[in-house]
Amino acid sequence: MEQGPEDDRNLVAAVMARRPGAFEHLVTRYQKLVWHLVHRIVQHPEDTRELAQEVFLQVHRRLHQFRFESALGTWIGRIAFSVASRHMQRKRLPMVEPDEDGVSPAERVEDGFDLAASVADAELMRHLHAAIDALPPLQRTLVTLYHVDELGIAEVARITDLPEGTVKNYLFRARQRLRRHLESLEACPS
């Protein structure tokens, strides 16, 4: 359920006033977003749990800095993305893979591929989830934010601190990889 700016203001005010249960309410409201973001990047449940706790610890410490220039969820999402990205850097794990084809950035997400129609079958859905999990961390995260969490390009860009064109490019490339994977399954029936 989408929360409005007034809900954000009331929740932040309650947490800042140290009202009992207010921070727990904030965690409950945003834990799914944080979990999705962190897990899509690190793909390790134990690390995800620890990093999600770190995200909410940072939210608690820095909530007084929130200026309502974006939605509270976007601000928390940015912290989650930052915490997970730093974790990947510390472990020296790449967030993106190098360009293998030298294709110039695609400036659009829409490429005519109907993802929903392609996964109508449950078996294909299972393969699609496996293919998404196999994407590089950044592509995996962007696909989740855009297609699963249904956030717009602008909000995904704010969360990841990437230019909108870059988000579109990575989404386009991820969709190409997913399409190739699904087409290879159709070409090789079990």
TrEMBL record:
<dbReference type="GO" id="GO:0006352">
    <property type="term" value="P:DNA-templated transcription initiation"/>
</dbReference>
<keyword id="KW-0804">Transcription</keyword>
<dbReference type="Pfam" id="PF08281">
    <property type="entry name" value="Sigma70_r4_2"/>
</dbReference>
<keyword id="KW-0805">Transcription regulation</keyword>
<protein>
    <submittedName>
        <fullName>Sigma-70 family RNA polymerase sigma factor</fullName>
    </submittedName>
</protein>
<dbReference type="Pfam" id="PF04542">
    <property type="entry name" value="Sigma70_r2"/>
</dbReference>
<dbReference type="InterPro" id="IPR013325">
    <property type="entry name" value="RNA_pol_sigma_r2"/>
</dbReference>
<dbReference type="InterPro" id="IPR039425">
    <property type="entry name" value="RNA_pol_sigma-70-like"/>
</dbReference>
<feature type="domain" description="RNA polymerase sigma factor 70 region 4 type 2">
    <location>
        <begin position="128"/>
        <end position="178"/>
    </location>
</feature>
<dbReference type="InterPro" id="IPR013324">
    <property type="entry name" value="RNA_pol_sigma_r3/r4-like"/>
</dbReference>
<keyword id="KW-0731">Sigma factor</keyword>
<dbReference type="GO" id="GO:0003677">
    <property type="term" value="F:DNA binding"/>
</dbReference>
<dbReference type="GO" id="GO:0016987">
    <property type="term" value="F:sigma factor activity"/>
</dbReference>
<dbReference type="InterPro" id="IPR036388">
    <property type="entry name" value="WH-like_DNA-bd_sf"/>
</dbReference>
<dbReference type="InterPro" id="IPR013249">
    <property type="entry name" value="RNA_pol_sigma70_r4_t2"/>
</dbReference>
<comment type="similarity">
    <text>Belongs to the sigma-70 factor family. ECF subfamily.</text>
</comment>
<feature type="domain" description="RNA polymerase sigma-70 region 2">
    <location>
        <begin position="26"/>
        <end position="92"/>
    </location>
</feature>
<dbReference type="InterPro" id="IPR014284">
    <property type="entry name" value="RNA_pol_sigma-70_dom"/>
</dbReference>
<dbReference type="InterPro" id="IPR007627">
    <property type="entry name" value="RNA_pol_sigma70_r2"/>
</dbReference>
